[in-house]
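Worked example 3. Consider a protein that binds K1U.
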Amino acid sequence: MAILQILQYPDTRLHTIAKKVAQVNDVTRKLVKNMAETMYAAPGVGLAATQVDVHEQVIVVDVSEEHNQLQVFINPEILSISGEQDGEEGCLSVPGIYETVRRADKVTVQALNLNGESFTLEAEGFLAVCIQHEMDHLRGKVFVEYLSQLKQTRLRAKLKKRRREAL
Ligand code: K1U
Ligand code: ZN
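Given these inputs, the predicted complex is written out as C-alpha cells:
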C-alpha cells in the first residue's frame, strides 16, 4: 500500500474529466487500497481518483465515526436527487478552507463495487454531501467553484500568500 500525493488547488489537473473504468480488475483494487490509505492518513472522509492524478471514475468515502466503514464507488451515476441542504465543506485539495455549499439532501447513486457488480445506494445528509463532492471531482469541479467570483479571487490570493510564506 502507499500514500499518494494529493493535487493542490489551483492545480489545473484537478479540472480533468475522469473516464469510466473499463474493467474492474486488480489494478483498480490496488488504486482503491492506496486511495483509502491516503484518505485515512490525510485525514479525510472522502477522496476522488482525480485528486491523486488518476483520471478514472473511482471514489472512496468513509463518514463513520470510527473510520472503519469504507464505501467504494466505481463509475458512479446519480439516478435521482431530492431536497436541499446547506453544509460546511472542506477539501483535501484546498487544505484549511471551509465554506458553505448548497447541495441535494438525498441522492440515489448507482455504481460498481470492487467485484465489478452494480449496486444502488440511497444516501442522505452528510454522506450525500460527500458523494456529491467526490463526484464533482470526477467532473473536474472543485467545491470552491460554487463560491462567488469575489470569494474565489480572495481565496486564490490567500492560498498564494500561504504557500509563499511556507517556502
Ligand atoms: O474530497 C476531499 O477532498 C475530501 C473531503 C470530503 C468532504 C468533506 C466535507 C464535506 C464534503 C466533502 C474531506 O475529507 S475534507 C476533511 C474533512 O472534512 C475531515 C477530516 C477529518 C475528520 C473529519 C472531516
Ligand atoms: Zn475535495
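Take a moment to read the result before moving on. The helical segments are 26-41, 125-138, 149-166. The chain has one domain: 12-166.
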